[in-house]
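Narrative of accomplishments. A recurring question from our advisory board has been how the design workflow behaves on a single, concrete structure rather than in aggregate. To address it, we present the structure tokens for one chain from the evaluation set, followed by the sequence designed for it. No filtering or post-editing was applied between the two.
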């Protein structure tokens, strides 16, 4: 049994060394990697939006310096190797985080939970608690994997909540743009004016996209489409397409924006009503279970007496 666990530990260590070599050795970059580097450099000109609460949650001192170094290292690695990260990239964009920061978080949490199992096992051994020697290895691997993939789940949940908030703001933003158009402003001025009415993080992102449109030499609706693609907001992409098709007709734009805003509000209302209906059904099931349990409680003495009499 000891030989088996030794072979398993050696195989796991060899697999880890092989993975590290595959990650950190620099292969000859191909065309796709070079294109990814150029694209990442272009995107790095876009500013990241964080709130005061998010900035106050940062660490300080040596921990902040170490985290910054690891974050920069992973950011460079992700850019050099063209790591796309799939949907995680959209979640990071909506949260205003970088890929290096996300990868560093996965490393720290995974490594921390990996080292937690041997530490707890050592404490229990000092307390004379009998435990098999194979437990810390298995538990460390399991906790390390859980810690490595836990940030993905947390990021997805936070990103989904932010997307819901963003969709609510998009409906209000459309109404504001329509009001500015009715006041005689042009479409670009109406978009920028509507994005300056509040310092909510979603409007700040829209305002930054519109400001960057002038720097990159693109139209405001193209910038909104790029933002919608980056943060995976379908309503923003559809808005950009509609504005691009009807940019020369102010009256049609106003009616189209008002109709889209009403559609978004109706969609949000139906979603809220559906969730409330699910909660009502859950409460009904809970009440039925409580009633059934109470009936069983009342009938139990009589049933037990009848069974005892037989």
């Amino acid at each position: 049994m000891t030989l088996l666990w030794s072979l398993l530990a050696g195989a796991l260590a060899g697999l880890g060394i092989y993975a590290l070599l595959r990650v950190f050795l620099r292969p000859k970059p191909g065309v796709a990697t070079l294109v990814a580097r150029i694209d990442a450099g272009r995107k790095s000109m876009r500013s990241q939006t964080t709130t005061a609460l998010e900035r106050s949650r940062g660490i300080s001192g040596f921990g902040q310096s170490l985290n910054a170094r690891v974050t920069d290292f992973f950011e460079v690695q992700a850019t050099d190797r063209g790591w796309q990260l799939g949907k995680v990239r959209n979640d990071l964009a909506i949260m205003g985080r970088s890929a290096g920061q996300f990868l560093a978080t996965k490393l720290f949490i995974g490594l921390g939970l990996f080292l937690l199992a041997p530490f707890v096992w050592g404490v229990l051994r000092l307390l004379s608690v009998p435990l098999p020697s194979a437990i810390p290895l298995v538990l460390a691997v399991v906790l390390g994997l859980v810690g490595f993939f836990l940030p993905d789940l947390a990021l997805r949940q936070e990103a989904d909540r932010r997307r819901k908030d963003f969709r609510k703001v998009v409906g209000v933003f459309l109404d504001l743009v329509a009001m500015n158009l009715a006041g005689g402003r042009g479409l670009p001025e109406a978009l920028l004016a509507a994005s300056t009415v509040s310092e909510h993080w979603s409007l700040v992102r829209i305002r930054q996209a519109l400001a960057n449109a002038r720097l990159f030499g693109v139209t405001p609706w193209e910038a909104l489409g790029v933002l919608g693609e980056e943060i995976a907001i379908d309503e923003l992409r559809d808005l950009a397409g509609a504005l691009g098709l009807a940019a020369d007709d102010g009256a049609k734009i106003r009616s189209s924006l008002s109709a889209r805003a009403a559609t978004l509000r109706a969609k949000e209302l139906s979603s809220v009503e559906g969730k409330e209906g699910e909660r009502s059904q859950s409460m009904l099931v809970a009440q039925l279970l409580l009633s059934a349990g109470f009936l069983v409680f009342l009938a139990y003495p009589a049933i037990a007496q009848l069974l005892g009499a037989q």
